[in-house]
Structures are given as structure tokens and as C-alpha cells.
Amino acid sequence: MVAALCVGLFIYAGGAVVMVVFAAALVAVVLHGAARLIRRVLPVRQWVAVVLFLAGFVGSVSLVVHVSGPELVTQLSHLYAALTHERDTLHAALDKNPVGHSVLNHIPRFFGGNQTSGPLGSEGAGGGMDFAGP
Asked: 16, 18, 38, 94: which could form a disulfide with 49 (CB 3.0–4.6 Å)?
């Protein structure tokens, strides 16, 4: 019981550190597996296989970005414009409805609501950063 409590407290207190450790372990497992596959085909050392895999991976990603990058940027800009329009339409629809207006008044401006003051000052929880727009 004490051990489980200690592990739970460790995860709660150092959650970000635990996530980084698990992410590093996952990357190491993927690199090791890819290197094993390369070593089955080519008689090279482990580190050479890892370097070959990373070079192939970076080259593949670079090729994909080079070939489809301009189209991807165009699509993302259209998506951003569409999402911004939909967000503004939803905000306007909620602002017209009395219940929706009341809900928006209780949501900080940081999250797209109408509330301008909160427990953290005049800017609300966002500290001056407004990700959701006006």
C-alpha cells in the first residue's frame, strides 16, 4: 500500500519527467527495432544501422515536405480561415441566445468567452494571451 502511494505521488509530482522518460524509452525501442531490421539485411554495426535509419527517415520526411509542402500550406491556411469563421459564427450564435450569453460571460476571454476579469487579474487566466480570438 505504501509503495503504491509512493509511486502515485511520484507520478503526480513529476508527471512531466515520467512522460519524458517513457517517450525516450519508446524512441529507443523504435530505433533499436529499426536497427535490427537493417542489420538483418546489411552486415553493419548497431550504431551504423541507427544512423542509416535516421538518415533514411529524415530524407523521407524531407522529400514528402518538399513535394507536398506548398499544397499542405495552402490547405492549412484554408483550414485556419474556415475554423476561424466557424468559431466566430458559434460565438455570435451563443451571444444572441440568453443562455448562451450567460455561458459566455462565465468563460474567460482566453478560452473565447466574454469574461474580462478573473481571479488572476484583468486579463483572466490567459495572462494576456488570447488564443481563441476576440
From this structure: 38
